[in-house]
Amino acid sequence: MNDSRYLPTLRYERMGGIVLDGSLAAREQIQVLADLYRHDAEGVGGALVEIAHLKERVDRERELGGIGNAAVVRDELVGELIDDIGGAEIHLDHRVNHRALMQARSLAEEARGLYEAALQRVAELETATAIARGGREVGRRCPACTLALLISLPR
């Protein structure tokens, strides 16, 4: 089994966005949550319902300017549930062997893909910014001022 399959992968890149896919890890966690629910339906179900109720309280507290502690309580409950299903940490094999090398290589390939997609997005944003800036500069020029400048130029 290759633990690096749970690392987020670059699903696709296109104009306007980069999409990472973490569905393999999410699927694994949902399956563990379902098993946990089967063994303790009341405890897990109660925790999920409490998390949902706390979300409503968090939303109401935000409307009141952030007064309250519902967000902290909700985050603690979510953290406990994540711990119960095995956590969200991704541990790479620490042994010096072929498997560890393959994990590191896989991680580097994913990072390279993310880096290249991010560079492409930077180039797109720089181009869009330059075009917008040029449009603003043209809009700021006064037509009469431009005409006066042309007339005053030596021939």
Description:
The protein is mainly α. The protein is built from five helices and two strands. The protein has helices spanning 23-39, 41-63, 70-84, 98-140, 143-152, and strands spanning 9-14, 17-21. It has a two-stranded antiparallel ribbon. The longest helix has 43 residues, at 98-140. The chain is flat, with a radius of gyration of 27 Å. The N and C termini lie far apart (79 Å). The model has no long low-confidence stretch (mean pLDDT 79).
Which key features would you list for this structure?
two-stranded antiparallel ribbon; mainly alpha; flat; about 160 residues; single chain; about 5% strand
Strand and helix map with partners:
Blueprint: E1 9-14, E2 17-21, H1 23-39, H2 41-63, H3 70-84, H4 98-140, H5 143-152
Antiparallel strand pairs: 1-2
Report the β-strand fraction as a percent range: 5-15%
Computed structural class: mainly alpha
User: Any idea what the shape is?
Assistant: flat
In what order do the strands lie side by side in the largest sheet? 1-2
Mean pLDDT: 79
Oligomer: single chain
Number of helices: 5
**Percent helix among the residues?**
55-70%
Q: Strand tally, please?
A: 2
- Low-pLDDT parts are none
How far apart are the termini?
79 Å
Biggest sheet architecture: 2 strands, antiparallel
| C-alpha-based Rg, rounded | 27 Å
Secondary-structure element pattern, one letter each:
EEHHHHH
Task: Offer a quick outline of the entry.
Helices cover 70% and strands 7% of the residues.
